[in-house]
Amino acid sequence: MSRPAEPIPVDERILRAWPLPAPGGSKDARGRVVVIGGSEHSPGGVLLAGVAALRVGAGRLTLVTPGSIALPVAMAVPEAGVLVLPEGGADAAVDPLGDQVRSELAGADAVLVGPGLDDLDLTRRLVEAVCRAEGVPAALALDAFALGVLPALDLALPPHAVLSPNVEEAGLLLGDGDGAPARDDPDVEGALDGDADRLAAVVARVADRYRAAVTCYGEVADPGGAWRVEEGGPGLGTSGSGDVLAGAIIGLLARGADAAQAAVWATHLHARAGDRLSERIGKVGFLARELCDELPRALDATG
Questions:
Q1: H-state helical runs in the chain
Q2: Euclidean distance between CA atoms 62 and 102, whole angstroms
Q3: Which of 38, 134, 181, 303 is the most exposed place for a label (fewest CB within 10 A)?
Q4: What sign does the dihedral 138-144-149-150 (CA atoms) show?
Q5: Where is 66: in which H helix or E strand?
Q6: Which of 85, 156, 168 has the alpha carbon at shortest distance from 119?
Q7: Residues 6+ away with beta carbon under 8 Å from 114
Q8: What are phi and psi of 225, to 5 degrees?
């Protein structure tokens, strides 16, 4: 399928003609999510992503995180099961997942890797291990450090994969794996300067390169389509906002949405949540955790 010349503007009419799978009547029917992330420096990312997944209707949540933060994570999100990553997982001699996590992955409907991770070697090994694990779900989302390691990895992503880079990370995804953005690339340079059409071109190229759905600052593409979410505002540029978006994506994937639908709907819901907070609190100054609380209302208003 060829991509349209211009991104399709996303509005409620478009979304209502593309309805999400109905939520099941039990937590298992609504989908099982596994989120792998977190670190001592950034424990909040895995929390925000997990809560966002539940807020868009996922039924069961497991957070997989380093042992040093596992207890406070479990206390902060009592709705989640919590598993611990093996110590020394960046070492080639150590299984970065361990038996318990591998077993949990085999029963999951969708997996997110990246929020809050801050060790590149560990992240690289986690992404490789998840993508090559026996029984890995067909639905996978990658965010944050899990995007930065992707260009250097020789692996195929699952059929329903979604990438949620910021602009700088989108440039890295078009690079050669040396940890630097694509050099002398007019689309990347234009996107970094705020050119929406150049950003749309970057997102489409990333989608083609990785055979995945991609969302970045309102521009969404997969290998056959392109969409533009024009809602949202400067308030979304706050710490943890991207973790909420990634969590919304994985929650919708777990409910049964395909990659493009999950990316488009999650991008819209994230933006609508920001708009609702802007109206009530102000254009800037609301917190990412408040975006999580607005997601169900945005979902009800749209669906």
A1: 12-16, 44-55, 67-76, 98-106, 120-132, 145-148, 167-173, 186-192, 196-210, 241-255, 259-280, 288-302
A2: 12
A3: 134
A4: positive
A5: strand 60-66
A6: 85
A7: 36, 37, 123, 141, 142, 143, 144, 145, 146, 147, 246
A8: -150, 165
In degrees, to the nearest 5, what angle opens at C-alpha 11 toward C-alphas 246 and 279? Answer: 75
3-class SS of residue 111: strand
Q: Convert the pLDDT of each residue in 200-237 to its tens digit.
A: 999 999 999 999 999 999 999 999 999 999 888 888 99
Q: What is the pLDDT of residue 192?
A: 86
Joined together, the tokens standing for residue 271 give 């933006």
Scanning the structure block, which residue is given the tokens 């067909």?
138
Q: What is the pLDDT of residues 138-171, one digit of tens each?
A: 899 999 999 999 998 988 899 999 999 999 999 9
Judged by DSSP in three states, 88 sits in: coil
Q: Which of 143, 178, 160 is nearest to 254 (CA)?
A: 160
CA 77/CA 64 separation, integer angstroms: 12
Q: Provide the phi-psi class of 282: left if phi over 0, else alpha when psi is between -120 and 50, else beta.
A: left
Residue 275 CA to residue 291 CA, distance in Å, equals: 10
Average pLDDT, the chain: 91
Q: Are 288 and 243 in contact (CB under 8 A)?
A: yes
What φ, ψ does residue 194 adopt, rounded to 5°?
95, 15
By residue count, the chain amounts to 303
Strand-pair partners of 150 = none
